[in-house]
Amino acid sequence: MRAFGLKTWIWNNGWKTALLLAGFPFLLLLICFAFGLLIVADGAPSFRQGLRDAAHIIPAVLPVVLAVTAIWFAIAWVWNQRILDLLSGAHPVTRAEEPRLWNAVETLCISRGLGMPRLAVIEQPARNAFASGLSRTTGAITVTRGLLEALDDRELTAVLAHELTHIRNGDARLAVVAAVFAGVISLPGELMVRAGRLFGQATTTTGSRGSSRSSSKGDGKGGGAILLVLLALAIMLLTWALALALRFALSRNREFLADAGAVELTQDPDALIAALRKVAARAELPRLPSQVQAMLLESSGETLGRSWLATHPPLDERIAALVRYAGGRDSGPVSVLVPDSPPEAPMPSAAPPSGSPWWRQS
Predict the structure, then answer these.
(1) What is the pLDDT of residues 70-127, one digit of tens each?
(2) Domain of 60?
(3) What global pTM score does this model have?
């Protein structure tokens, strides 16, 4: 295994994460500036003076934005795991119920001096897994029944090492931070769109009565106010798009880091590559909401795999990185047969028979 290349890969992804996280406070300041523009727009004597006044209002607006962010964080911190269990349909398992799963995770935890995370299973034939928990002491690893049945011991250990690395690195916490920041930043834009619709409806009903008065009040200051409002709306739209881009880029970056961490734990890049190939052959859990889809081991999708809206890097890029930096060997896509009449949705609680493949070619 190319240890130097692996360490360099981890370091590069680490500083990329720091840069991405630094972008969120900057976007919060932009949102505060946009609010300032809306506040001063009506009374600003000119466009330039409005810009200066809006900048001076930022210290007054920032505490309000931070308070909203803190409340959102508190709600996410308390309800995160409960919401995930409810949305995914996962149920906790004991050592007696899933000894193979427990033994594999326990061995990995002992090798790094980590506490045992909570283990859960989703009774679905799809092959996937995700890690959750906002700290190492509250960490949880959830796997599907299909994953347990499709992977051999080496491959299962590699996947569990990937998820355990997410817990070690605090990736679930980072995901919540990114989601809250993105939500707070995009909220003003959504409110403005809804307010604009209501204002448009009110203008339509009262347009004939207000036309004469508006024409008599028009002056140079009105043009500056309109420009300030338009600039505020443009900033809100821009920050919304950038917040989403940062959130998804951070998610993709942490997947690369978890792959590297899994190789560090297992010293077996070949097993992780083989596991990713098998998972990709039947990774879909379409009934899960997008918030949970973003946490899965593999969820690149067919249309967003190379998009800035993708939560995961494309599979071929992940495997290429494992080959390049960890010295892994890729045997190519898994050869599977497609049944004549594949089911439209996953079966509710039954694993696929061992002799008849259900999955489709990725």
Answers:
(1) 898 888 777 877 788 788 889 999 999 999 999 999 999 999 888 999 999 999 999 9
(2) 3-202+222-326
(3) 0.76
State pLDDT tens for residues 152-199: 999 999 999 999 999 998 888 888 888 888 888 877 766 666 655 555
Residue 334 within any structural domain of the chain: no
The reply to whether 98 belongs to the active site is no
Structure tokens at 220: 């140079």
Q: How many domains does the chain have?
A: 1
Catalytic residue among 98, 155, 163, 264: 163
Whose tokens are 């297992």? That residue is: 266
Residue 343 has pLDDT above 50, yes or no: no
**209 lies in a domain?**
no
Residues contacting 213, CB < 8 A, separation 6+: none
Residue 342 in domain:
no
The reply to whether 211 falls in a domain is: no
Q: Tell me the DSSP string of 290-320.
A: HHHHTTBS----SSSTTSTT-SS--HHHHHH
Of 255, 241, 208, nearest to 31 by C-alpha is 241
Under 8 Å between Cβ of 286 and 226: no
